[in-house]
Amino acid sequence: MSISKGKLITFEGIDGSGKSTQAKRLVDYLNKSKETAIFVREPGGTTISEEIRDILLNRHLEDINDRTEALLMTGSRSQLTHEIIIPNLNKGLHVIADRYSDSTLAYQGGGRQIDLDWLIDLNKFATYNLDPNITFFIDVIPEEAFNRKNKEKDRIEMAGIELQNRVRDTYLKLSQRFQDRYKVIDGHDSIDNIHTKILDEIRSREYI
User: Fold this and answer.
1) How many Cα atoms are found within 13 Å in the side-chain-facing hemisphere of 9?
2) Which residues contact 154 (CB under 8 A, 6 or more apart)?
3) Looking at residue 154, what is its pLDDT?
4) Is there a contact between 123 and 107 (Cβ–Cβ < 8 Å)?
5) Beta bridge partner(s), residue 97
6) FRET label pair with 139: which of 45, 111, 193, 194, CA 20 to 30 Å apart?
7) What per-residue confidence (pLDDT) applies to 150?
8) For residue 78, what are the CA distances in angstroms to 43, 52, 86, 176, 194?
9) Which strands, in side-by-side order, build the sheet including 134-139?
10) What is the pLDDT of residue 166?
11) pLDDT of residue 152
């Protein structure tokens, strides 16, 4: 397996879509012969970003307003990008991210109904203008995603199916707006089939 330059490969989807499973499977695949990829998650991934995650997902902090939520999300992302993502890309490693900038557009833009173009500019500032090379959107209907979740819901998940429907709709709009880097995959398919489709796509782009 020959990799000449690190790529930022992001996985997006509503909660319960299976994106985390697929992101970790891709990392395992890439690292079979030698270390060529690292895994990061959002919000989180650094000491500072994990502290922010604890605030964002705390089910008892219901008074966080929508703008504060957006700023905290992008603040966590900025620290992760500066501390982990950019240095590893510069080393030639692929960075596989369980959520990245599109999550803010989908959740705070579509879900919380904050102006999308303002959030795009905020993301550019937070990420040093770093865009993913490819984004896999694992698409499932919210009812199916909710049935898959068997743990206590975090603060954002507690907002319910109506928010998740708006989030999903926004992801679908983003997949049209950013067609060059988006790959929509049916998340109702089997885990193995989804993994195969992901590998086929990154091979077609000559990332591996």
Assistant:
1) 31
2) 57, 58, 59
3) 73
4) no
5) 10, 40
6) 45
7) 67
8) 10, 12, 11, 25, 30
9) 37-41, 94-98, 8-12, 134-139, 182-186
10) 96
11) 73
Determine the topology of domain 8-204 in CATH: Rossmann fold (3.40.50)
Smallest Cα–Cα separation from 74: which of 51, 98, 41, 52?
A: 52
How is the chain split into domains, by residue range? 8-204
Check if the beta carbon of residue 9 is closer than 8 Å to that of residue 36: no
Regions of the chain with pLDDT less than 50: 1-4
For residue 206, with 0-12 CB atoms within 10 Å meaning exposed, 13-18 middle and 19 or more buried, which class applies?
exposed
- Whether 50 and 204 have beta carbons less than 8 Å apart is answered as no
Token digits of residue 75: 């603040």
User: Using the 8-state DSSP alphabet, how is residue 1 labeled?
Assistant: -
DSSP designation for 109: I
Helix (H) or strand (E) holding 173: helix 161-177
- Predicted pLDDT of residue 156: 78
* 175 Cβ contact partners less than 8 Å away, ≥ 6 residues apart: 137, 182, 184
